């Protein structure tokens, strides 16, 4: 078994973090870069990630996550929020970034711009938000894999009140809605799942080869 697969067996959704062990700034930056480099539809990345270390802020958010201890015990709390206002202005900024990053004229990206105008920008608001939230989960998956490689624990979390988080973090003013969380740190020796064998479907159940 190669190291990557071994590390995926090692990782699990850690529930009890050791508050005395802290993720280094260097490792945090590696994890954030893994999120930044995640695949995304058209490379559009219609989301932002809030990296929260401040203990007072996390203490305020904790009740909105039903008091789960990961919120305050982990080294960092990440809040993934999708953009609710993906429009022409957002698209223009995306094209500008492509032009500047690749040192090419804006006009070279007219085909890409038109493709997005004829797809994403024609979606209803509800469909657009579903599409944007799906992009978030691709980034979350990248975080989980990268963290496993570094032997850093992550707990992905949907057990929270998004409206309360949005209010406390003033996300509405930024045209953002929180959709999922991730706490980052190191597992506590007392975590009940620390040594549990990973339970997944068998390959026969999961995969259909055609």
Describe this structure in words.
The protein is an alpha+beta fold. The chain has one domain: NADH Oxidase, CATH 3.40.109.10. Helices cover 43% and strands 14% of the residues. The chain has helices at residues 3-10, 25-36, 55-61, 70-73, 88-102, 110-117, 125-149, 162-168, 203-206, and strands at 47-52, 76-83, 153-157, 176-185. Strands 1-2-4-3 form a 4-stranded antiparallel β-sheet, sandwiched between helices. The longest helix is centred in the middle third of the chain and has 25 residues, at 125-149. The radius of gyration is 19 Å and the shape is globular. The two termini are 25 Å apart. InterPro entries: NfsB-like, Nitroreductase, Nitroreductase-like.
Layout: helices, strands, pairs:
Elements: H1 3-10, H2 25-36, E1 47-52, H3 55-61, H4 70-73, E2 76-83, H5 88-102, H6 110-117, H7 125-149, E3 153-157, H8 162-168, E4 176-185, H9 203-206
Helix pairs in contact: 2-7, 5-6
Domain Nitroreductase: 10-186
Cofactor: FMN
Family: Belongs to the nitroreductase family.
């Amino acid at each position: 078994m190669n190291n990557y697969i071994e590390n995926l067996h090692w990782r699990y959704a850690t529930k009890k973090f050791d508050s005395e062990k802290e993720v280094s700034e260097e490792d945090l930056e590696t994890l954030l870069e893994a999120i930044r480099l995640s695949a995304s539809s058209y490379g559009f990345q219609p989301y932002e990630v809030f990296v929260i270390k401040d203990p007072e802020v996390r203490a305020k958010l904790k009740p909105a996550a039903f008091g789960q201890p990961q919120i305050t015990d982990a080294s960092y709390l990440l809040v993934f929020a999708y953009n609710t206002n993906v429009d022409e202005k957002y698209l223009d900024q995306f094209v500008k970034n492509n032009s500047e990053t690749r040192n090419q004229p804006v006009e070279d990206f007219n085909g890409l711009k038109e493709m997005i105008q004829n797809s994403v920008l024609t979606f209803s608001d509800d469909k657009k938000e579903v599409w944007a939230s799906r992009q978030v989960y691709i980034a979350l998956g990248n975080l989980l894999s990268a963290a496993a490689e570094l032997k850093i624990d992550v707990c992905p979390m949907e057990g929270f009140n998004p409206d309360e988080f949005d209010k406390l973090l003033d996300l509405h003013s930024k045209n953002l809605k929180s959709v999922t969380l991730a706490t980052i740190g190191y597992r506590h020796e007392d975590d009940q799942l620390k040594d549990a064998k990973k339970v997944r479907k068998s390959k026969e159940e999961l995969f259909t080869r055609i």
